[in-house]
Structures are given as C-alpha cells and as structure tokens.
C-alpha cells in the first residue's frame, strides 16, 4: 500500500510517515508532484539487493568486539572409499 503525503504533512507529522512506511512506501510530494519516497531500511536493502553478507560483517570495524567461541570438535569421521 502506498501512502502519499505532501511535504508539509511530512514535516508536521514525521512519526505518521515512519509508521506508514512499515506497511509500504510513502510518497512525499512537493507542490503536488512526487519528490521523495520513504521506506524502511530493510525494504531498501531488499529493493537494492544490498543485504549484508558474512564478508561485510567480518569487515566491520567493531567485529573485534563480537564474542565468538565455537564449540570444540569432538571427533572427525574419515570418508570411506564410496564417498570419494
């Protein structure tokens, strides 16, 4: 569902625009003509195809602050001749 707001309405009630963006894009007009579109960040990522990959997350400056302790591997199984 697309919500349309004038620039004036947007300026006067930004929280309304943010709430409306949760259900679909918000078209903001300037002098009656479409000027801007407001959408949630997750929708923006979906539309642009720019979701974070594991490589993006590893390269984060704060990645060193993330606690990560993988479980110790207890045993390995060797491949049999059939699985080669």
Automatic annotation (TrEMBL):
Alphabetical list of InterPro entries matching this protein: Antitoxin_Phd/YefM, YefM-like_sf
Pfam families named among the record's database cross-references: PhdYeFM_antitox
Family of this protein: Belongs to the phD/YefM antitoxin family.
Protein name as catalogued: Antitoxin
Organism placement in taxonomy: Bacteria, Pseudomonadati, Pseudomonadota, Betaproteobacteria, Burkholderiales
Purpose: Antitoxin component of a type II toxin-antitoxin (TA) system.
Coiled-coil blocks: none
Compositionally biased intervals (Polar residues): 1-14
Top-level division of the source organism's lineage: Bacteria
């Amino acid at each position: 569902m697309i919500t349309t707001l004038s620039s004036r309405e947007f300026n006067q009630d930004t929280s309304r625009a943010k709430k409306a963006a949760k259900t679909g894009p918000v078209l903001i007009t300037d002098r009656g003509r479409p000027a801007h579109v407001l959408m949630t960040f997750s929708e923006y990522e979906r539309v642009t195809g720019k979701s974070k990959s594991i490589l993006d997350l590893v390269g984060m400056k704060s990645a060193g602050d993330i606690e990560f302790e993988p479980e110790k591997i207890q045993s390995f199984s060797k491949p049999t001749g059939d699985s080669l």
